[in-house]
């Protein structure tokens, strides 16, 4: 993308470049491999997933606070005994079934709230991400008969995010690193390297491992979202009601997914709109994996955002929609998030200090630049 | 590094075989796919597919209580689904207890039972106990009192097909004309529920 502004090359250079192409192919493969092992991709998107799912789970836990005993507690209709019986059959494990005491459950619930908040903030992210995955898996498995697609997606993402370096951007960890760099601790690094020994080697291999794990994790997340949309779309194609454009009429008339009956009725009266929305839904979902590699992905992601906002309001499924929207965010490039970050900074400065923002800028500029060596 | 990459690729392949419709490849490797995917990576994305539900289910419960003089008194019906629906109405963020609890308990009961309501597997017995617990908890919270057995009634109300523009409106007739299924009386566990 950086090569775009280069003026059109001379015809002869183009020919030579073509002739060189086969010889350079192994170089290309090597470069790809090198970037796979050295440069973690989409660090901002990973941070957005971390913040998004951390906050979403926190909101979910707090929303279900009045119902927590019914859903996960020792006195729930799905008794700890039934849960353990099912775990024996499926091989699941949950911290919640270790004890039937009420106090233990409250402690687990408090732990889940704290872990979700810390995960969203990005404090000691790698360790907390493991805890977050354990918490989500425990609460999910304990109330497995009360989960829907949104919960399922949050669980998968919580597990995959353990692999990623999701704490590198927009986190307390990143802030600590930046402050330490400013304080000059990082200058000791070259000295270490000159001194030789095992530590630099360890550091390099650790960095490689982190990058490879992260890149594989992000690949798996992206593939997972593609499978989600692909299969949701292809299964719909097999259904008659999606074919004749009446599926959404039935969806709008499900009592449990109709928080605003007046609104649902109003939408339901426009049968042309319903059919168009039916076809568009199927088309978007089936097309999703194929548009990701071009610019077409932006309109498609925007339409999916609209679809999910519609589901959130019309069907009363904000948790499910939130999980889907955050998953879609993985496909936005880092330059989008960097621009968003700059916009945010400018707004914050503008709102915070008015005219002094202008005076601050030259001083502040070097700080973000330093924090983005691996950008 | 290659181990990492290979694991990622194999994982993606196995998840693909898990979500794809049954095919020769996934049938041949079903053992490997299940061993890897279950239970942590289990997933199902048939969201409203192939067709969305075209019925609303209305689940009610009634209980019996034997008085000290030996007479058995049967209570009136208590509409459990109406409680859920009213909890969802005008709520921007409905609880899982309203949208998923009873709905999913009933659908997993249906998956594990034939029409004769006999629990033939351990899983079937578990779903039956789950339904009993939900119903008895809710009845107890609603009107208190003690009861020894509970019965569920499930009325399936079909959603009418959309009427073509200008056509005769048949909606009011079909509403409420669903079929009704009475489940057997189930004993309520005295130690934990309803008493």
From TrEMBL, chain A:
The keyword Zinc-finger is assigned to this record: no
Pro residues composition bias: residue spans: 1-10
Listed InterPro entries: HTTM-like, Sporulation_signal_mat
TM stretches of this protein: 41-62, 103-121, 128-147, 153-170, 209-232, 272-293, 305-327
Composition-biased stretches (Basic and acidic residues): 15-25
UniProt-listed SMART domains: HTTM
Subcellular location field: Endomembrane system
Principal location class: membrane
Gene Ontology annotations for the cellular component aspect, listed alphabetically: endomembrane system
UniProt membrane topology term: Multi-pass membrane protein
Residue ranges annotated for the HTTM-like domain, each copy included: 38-336
Residue ranges, annotated region (Disordered): 1-25, 351-375
Keyword Disulfide bond recorded: no
Protein name per UniProt: HTTM domain-containing protein
TrEMBL record, chain B:
InterPro entries per UniProt: DUF5819
Keyword annotations of the record: Signal
Signal peptide positions on this chain: 1-20
Domain of life of the organism encoding this protein: Bacteria
Protein name as it appears in the record: Uncharacterized protein
């Amino acid at each position: 993308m950086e090569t775009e502004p280069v003026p059109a090359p001379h015809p002869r250079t183009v020919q030579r470049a073509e002739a060189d192409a086969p010889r350079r192919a192994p170089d290309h493969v090597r470069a790809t491999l090198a970037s796979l092992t050295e440069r973690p991709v989409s660090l901002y998107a990973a941070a957005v997933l971390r913040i998004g799912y951390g906050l979403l789970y926190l909101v979910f836990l707090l929303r279900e606070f009045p119902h927590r005993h019914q859903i996960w507690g020792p006195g729930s209709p799905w008794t700890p005994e039934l849960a353990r019986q099912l775990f024996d059959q499926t091989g699941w494990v949950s911290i919640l079934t270790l004890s039937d005491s009420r106090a233990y459950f409250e402690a687990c619930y408090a732990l889940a709230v704290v872990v979700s908040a810390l995960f969203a903030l990005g404090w000691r992210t790698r360790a907390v991400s493991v805890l977050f995955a354990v918490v989500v898996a425990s609460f999910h498995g304990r109330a497995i008969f009360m989960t829907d697609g949104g919960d399922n997606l949050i669980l998968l993402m919580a597990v995959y995010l353990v692999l990623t370096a999701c704490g590198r951007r927009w986190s307390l960890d990143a802030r600590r690193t930046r402050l330490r760099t400013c304080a000059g601790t990082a200058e000791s690094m070259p000295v270490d390297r000159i001194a030789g020994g095992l530590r630099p080697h360890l550091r390099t291999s650790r960095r490689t491992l982190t990058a490879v794990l992260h890149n594989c994790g992000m690949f798996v997340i992206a593939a997972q979202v593609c499978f989600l949309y692909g299969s949701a779309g292809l299964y719909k194609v097999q259904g008659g009601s999606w074919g004749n454009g009446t599926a959404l009429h039935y969806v709008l008339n499900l009592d449990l997914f109709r928080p605003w009956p007046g609104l649902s009725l109003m939408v339901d009266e426009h049968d042309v709109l319903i059919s168009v929305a039916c076809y568009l839904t199927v088309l978007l979902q089936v097309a999703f994996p194929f548009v990701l590699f071009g610019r077409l992905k932006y309109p498609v992601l925007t339409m999916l955002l609209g679809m999910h906002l519609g589901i959130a309001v019309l069907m009363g499924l904000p948790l499910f929609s939130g999980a889907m929207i955050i998953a879609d965010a993985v496909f936005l490039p880092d330059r989008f998030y960097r621009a968003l970050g700059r916009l945010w900074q400018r707004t914050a400065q503008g709102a915070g200090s008015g005219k002094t923002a202008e005076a601050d800028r030259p001083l502040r500029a070097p700080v973000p630049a330093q924090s983005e060596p691996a950008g | 590094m290659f181990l990492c990459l290979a694991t990622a690729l194999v994982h993606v392949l196995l998840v693909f075989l898990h979500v794809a419709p049954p095919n020769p490849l996934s049938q041949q490797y079903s053992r490997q796919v299940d061993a890897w995917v279950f239970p942590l990576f289990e997933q199902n994305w048939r969201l409203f597919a192939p067709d969305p539900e075209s019925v609303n289910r209305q689940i009610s419960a009634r209980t019996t209580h034997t008085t000290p003089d030996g007479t058995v008194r049967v209570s009136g019906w208590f509409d459990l689904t109406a409680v859920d629906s009213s909890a969802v109405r005008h709520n921007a963020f409905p609880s899982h207890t309203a949208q998923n609890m009873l709905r999913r308990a009933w659908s997993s009961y249906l998956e594990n039972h034939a029409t004769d309501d006999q629990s033939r597997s351990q899983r079937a017995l578990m779903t039956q106990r789950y339904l009993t617990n939900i119903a008895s908890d809710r009845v107890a919270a609603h009107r208190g009192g003690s009861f020894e057995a509970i019965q569920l009634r499930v009325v399936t109300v079909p959603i009418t097909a959309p009427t073509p523009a200008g056509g005769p409106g048949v909606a009011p007739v079909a509403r409420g004309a669903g079929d009704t299924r009475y489940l057997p009386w189930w004993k309520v566990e005295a130690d934990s529920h309803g008493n």
